[in-house]
Amino acid sequence: MPGCARYDGVCGRCDAPLDFDFTMAFQPLVDIDEGRVYGYEALVRGPEGESAAAVLAKVDDRTRYRFDQACRVKAIEIAHRLNARGVLSINFLPNAVYEPEACIQATLAAAERVGWPVSRLCFEIVESESVTDRRHLQNIVASYRAMGMKTALDDFGTGYANLDLLAEISPDMLKIDRQLISNIDASPRKQIVIRHLVDLARHLDIKLVAEGIETLEEARWLYRHGIARQQGYWFARPAAERLPACPDSRFALVKGRY
After folding, report:
1. Strands 173-176 and 121-125, how do they pair?
2. Which letter does DSSP use for residue 110 in this model?
3. Is the pTM above the cut of 0.85?
4. pLDDT for 134-174, tens place per residue?
5. Distance of alpha carbon 86 from alpha carbon 200, whole angstroms
6. Which of 147, 182, 233, 244 shows the smallest number of beta carbons within 10 Å?
7. Closest CA relative to residue 127, chosen from 147, 102, 152
8. Helix 105-114 vs helix 64-81: angle between axes, to the nearest 10 degrees?
């Protein structure tokens, strides 16, 4: 892992502008037990509504670090402008962090500038590519926790985000991937996996968040088996530079009150 490029207050990797534009969409994070939206995840979108994949396709080895830094800053600035409440969850690329204490400075400066408490920041570890230096990832998680921020392991159960990684780092949250969630109410084998994952998270003192909820039946099964924190289209779709509402009736439906 190359060393930090910041010298005399200037970073050669992150301070130059990107040659493309992007914005952020926001999707609610809900807590069924509490019957409320407890935060939002910031998701990359193009300025004309282009998908995250279309934006990420413009990122290469030369711009990965600048893009990662710009995403953090833009997410904080837009969330503040929208008067977002609760936790702000932001994806980050582990391979774009060289020195945790140095590479967080632009994020901390943005949070201080708009008055966003760092305790309301959660960074989701996105493993679209393998992180071969697990010690480095451990250092990132530990450093962010020492600064008062939270971390989550995203897309758990697919790709590189599996049990071997969980055995080596200690995130505050696990976000269970949609592939394990889809049709969970009608899939006995998936149900076995989720039940054991609930037990594992309890022993490791890690909160679970189920991603990609698209039906009432999925939300209800997960809630009844111990996963109250959920996210997905069934509650609200992401909206560019807007905070979509989640109807109160959705919480009641999951609890079986309607």
Report:
1. unpaired
2. H
3. yes
4. 788 888 888 899 999 999 988 888 766 567 778 888 899 99
5. 26
6. 233
7. 152
8. 10
